[in-house]
Amino acid sequence: MTRLDKNMYVECLPVTLYNEIINALNKDAAWITLANHVAEELQLSTLWIHSLKKIKYPSDSPGQKLLSELNIKMCTIEILRTLLNDCKLYDILSIISDPEPLSIVVHPTEELHTDILKVPFGRHLHLCCKAVGIPPPNYIWYHNSNQLQHCISDELDLVITWYTSQKIFRYFYYLIVFASQAGEYRCEVFQIKNDGSLISTLTSKAVTVQILSIPVAIEEQPQPLLEVKEGQNFTICCKANNYSKPRYQWFHNNTKLEEETSNILHIKQFSLRNEGKYYCHIYNDISEIYTERAHVMMDFPKLKAVAKIALVIANEDYDCHERLLTSKNDAACIGNLLKEIGFEVICLLNLTITQMKNAIKIFSEALEEGVYGLFYFAGHGFKMQENYMLAIDAPEIYLRKDAICESELLSAFLENDPELLIVILDMCQTLPSKKFNPEIYHEVPIVNEYKSKKNLRNLIQAYSTSSHRPSYEKLNCKYGLYMEHLSKYINEDITVTKLFEEVGKSIDSCFKGKERNQIPMFAVSVTKPFRLTDATYEKKLSHNIDCLNELISYSTQTINVLFKPANMCSRVTISLFMEPYLNVIRIKVLDLPNVEINFFNSIPTKRNNLFQDQHEKECWIHNPQINEGSLIISVSKNSIAISATVLHIKNYIPLLLKLINV
C-alpha cells in the first residue's frame, strides 16, 4: 500500500513532491541516467536528450523538462517508480513510495560462511553486507569500535600489508593496513529521511579477522663487496619484510656466528681472519631464505706504477693446425678492457714465430723497474715439462724449438726487473701425441733460466687450464670459456690475487659436463696488494717507455690519391680494421661513386693477407709489414679497368710492425 494512487499521472502529484523530484533529478545530474533509460525504452534519438539541456527560461532545468516530457507521454506514478527502480535511483524513488523497513538480507558472515577469517599479509579481505529498505540504506564499516573513514559502501576491501594508506577505486574503498588491523569487522546500516533525520539503524554480524604470517622475503641484500682497513669496525646489513616476523642468523664462510641474530652484523677490529664470505639465514615459522654473499676483504693501501703496458697476441689462423674460433675475440676483449684501466696495449693477430719473438723482445725492453706488465696469449699450445706457445707457422709435426716456451718468455720479461708481471696463457696444455709426433719426445730441450734481480715477489702466472688438460671453445660463442669469466674481473678494483681467485670460482660454478675437464689455475709470488687499476705516477716517462709509446702510436690517416689515366682524384682513409689490433689495417676509398674499386698486392705474398669488400670500396691487410711491394688500387667501370694508382702501404702502418718483421 502506498500513499499515492499508482495510476495517478505524474502531473497530478502535489506541488511539493513534484518540485522535490525535480530537485533530486537535477542533483548530481541524475536526470541523465533516467533520460537515457527512457530514450532506450521508447527508442528516442539522442537529439531528444540534448533538447532537455536547452534552457529557455530561468525557471527551466533538465530535471523539470524531463518530468514535463514524461507528463506528455502519460506517465503514471507506477511507471515512474518502475523507471526509477530500473535506474537504481532509490533516493528519488523514496519520494513517491511509502517507507519500507530496513532489513539486512546478507550479513558478512553469511557470504563467507564463517565468522572467523584468517588472512595472510598481502592478500585482499573482501567483506560484503547487503540491506534493503526505503529510503535506501546507507553503510558505515567499523573495525572493533573504530569507524573506518570513507568506508561507506556495501562492500569493503582490505589489503593486508605493512604500509598504511588509503585509496578509493570506483565504488569500493581500498584500505592498506598494519598488522594491528586484525580484529572484528562489522557494518552499520541506517536509513535517513530526505530532510536528513535518522529513521532506523541496524548492525551486521561481526567477522573476526586473524592475520597470518607469510614467507620471508628479502628486501635488502648485503653489500656484495666490502674493503675494510685493518683495525676498523664495520657492519653488514640485510633486511626482510618485517610483517613476516623474520629471525636472523649470520654465517662466516659457512660457520655459524653465535649470538649474531639481528639484521645487522657488527665486526670490531677487522683483521685478516675476518676476510671471507658472509651471509645471513633468514627464517620464520613457515619459511626460510639465504641472502647473497657479502665478500669482505682487507683494504690495502693503493700502489702506483711508473707505467702499465700489455702485450696481447692472438693466433687463430694456423698454416698446419686447426683454425681456432675465438682467439681473435678473446684477445681483443682483454686488450680493450686493459685500455679502459690505463694500460698501453700492443695487440697483434696471427704472428709467425719470428714475429712473436721480436714482439716479446721489444716489449721486454720496456718492462723496467716500477712498470706493471701483462702478457696474454690465445692460441694453440702444449705442455712438456713446461708450457709452449705455437706460432701460426708451426709445422704439422713440430718440435719444441718450433715453439716459444714459458721460461724463454719469463727470461726476457724479468730481465729488467718490472714491478709486477702477469703472464696469462689461454691455450691447451695437452701432451703432443706420441703416435703422430714421436720425434718431440727424443728432442733435448733448451733450458732457459729466469729470475728477478730486486723484485723477487713480482710474478703471477695464470693458465686457462691445468697441466695436460684441454682449453675449450664453444661453437656459436663469441668468447672462449676462460675469457668469458676473466673479462668479468680483469678491470675490477681488486687485488690481482683476488682477481684470479674470483675467476676460478666463477668458472667452477658455471662449467658443466665436458667443460669441467678445463681447470684454470694460477701461481703467485706477489705479496704486495697490486691492482691492475692502480694509478700511474704523473712524471716524465723513461726513454724505453717513450720509445714503446712511439712504436705503437697510431691514428686514422686520410690522404689524397690521383688516378692519372682517368684524371680522377679521391681521398683514401687508412685506419685500424679492428680495435685494438695494430697489424690489421683498413684502406677505404672515398668520393668515387658509380665505379668499382679493387685492391691488389703488386707482389703476391706467400700467405694471402689481403681481403676486400667491393660494396664498401675497402680492403684490409693482415700483417702489412710482410708486403714486399705496394698496394694497387684499381678503378673499373662496367667491369672494365679504367685507371689505377699505387699506395706504399708500409708508409702508413705503426712503426712497431716494421720492427717485428726483421
UniProtKB/TrEMBL annotation:
It comes from the Eukaryota. GO terms for molecular function: cysteine-type endopeptidase activity. InterPro entries: Caspase-like_dom_sf, Caspase-related_regulators, DEATH-like_dom_sf, Ig-like_dom, Ig-like_dom_sf, Ig-like_fold, Ig_sub, Ig_sub2. Residues 108-208, 215-297 form the Ig-like domain. Residues 308-383 form the Caspase family p20 domain. CDD domains: Ig. SMART domains: IG, IGc2. GO terms for biological process: proteolysis. PANTHER family: MUCOSA ASSOCIATED LYMPHOID TISSUE LYMPHOMA TRANSLOCATION PROTEIN 1/PARACASPASE (PTHR22576), MUCOSA-ASSOCIATED LYMPHOID TISSUE LYMPHOMA TRANSLOCATION PROTEIN 1 (PTHR22576:SF37). This is Mucosa-associated lymphoid tissue lymphoma translocation protein 1.
